[in-house]
Write a structure and sequence with these properties.
The complex is a heterodimer.
Chain A: E1 4-7, E2 10-14, E3 19-25, E4 32-37, E5 43-49, E6 55-58, E7 61-65, E8 71-76, E9 85-92, E10 100-102, E11 106-111
Parallel strand pairs in A: 2-11
Antiparallel strand pairs in A: 1-3, 3-8, 4-5, 4-9, 6-7, 7-8, 9-10, 9-11
Chain B: E1 3-7, E2 10-13, E3 19-26, E4 32-39, E5 43-52, E6 55-58, E7 65-70, E8 73-78, E9 87-94, E10 103-104, E11 108-112
The chains are: A mainly beta, B mainly beta.
């Protein structure tokens, strides 16, 4: 079965610094989703990537999917306290069935 | 616009008692519906998946069951709760078909004591 591994597991950065979170799959990704979660709350959809080499941006967050479609990165530029939370990558574990499996998550703290 | 609601938000139940968590989606028809559980240290795990009324796919063997009595209503149940059922339960939906974004509800905290 497909597994998603995120790194790092946790991250503490100073406000204003850039950071990158990685998500690696054991199999080809048919769709890679990034979500953000505040502890004890629902997941907020950030971006979805489907094509090899695809890159999307929203405000100061950029997500990329590599050409082989087995690794994705989430990059935050000039981090702010509002970026703090848990970032989760999700992917269709069964090959375009709509049922997502998720990585373990990366906890981000931003120090003001 | 589409919205998803689940309730109750927080629940404390004794071992052996029944459970019912409800989820409804508004603003769309024939959605795919999901129940996920997020337990400490175990990430987000898909429990049930439904593509239509009465059509439920169970992803992992467990003490829980799901039902979809109406198009936009998804219910998570248990006849007798176990301590291991404690966790954060999330309902989610996506448009019918595949390759569509999945949107999550606010979540329900279940503590079994």
């Amino acid at each position: 079965s497909q597994e998603l591994e995120q790194s790092p597991q946790s991250l503490i950065v100073q406000e204003g610094k850039n950071l990158t979170i990685n998500c690696t799959s054991s199999k080809t990704l048919y769709g890679l989703y990034w979500y953000k979660q505040k502890y004890g709350e629902g997941l907020i959809f950030l971006m979805m990537l489907q094509k090899g080499g695809e890159e999307k941006s929203h405000e100061k967050i950029t997500a990329k999917l590599d050409e082989k479609k087995q690794q994705s990165s989430l990059h935050i530029t000039a981090s702010q306290p509002s970026h703090a939370g848990i970032y989760l990558c999700g992917a269709d574990g069964s090959g375009n069935t709509g049922k997502l499996i998720f990585g373990q998550g990366t906890t981000l703290q931003v120090k003001p | 616009s589409q919205t998803i609601h689940q309730w109750p938000a927080t629940l404390v139940q004794p071992v052996g008692s029944p459970l019912s968590l409800e989820c409804t989606v508004e603003g769309t028809s024939n959605p795919n519906l999901y129940w996920y559980r997020q337990a400490a240290g175990r990430g987000l795990q898909l429990l049930f998946y439904s593509v239509g009324i009465g059509q439920i796919s169970s992803e992992v063997p467990q003490n829980l069951s799901a039902s979809r009595p109406q198009d936009r209503q998804f219910i998570l149940s248990s006849k007798k709760l176990l301590l291991s059922d404690s966790g954060f339960y999330l309902c989610a939906w996506s448009r019918t078909g595949t390759g569509n974004t999945i949107y999550f509800g606010e979540g329900s905290w279940l503590t079994v004591v």
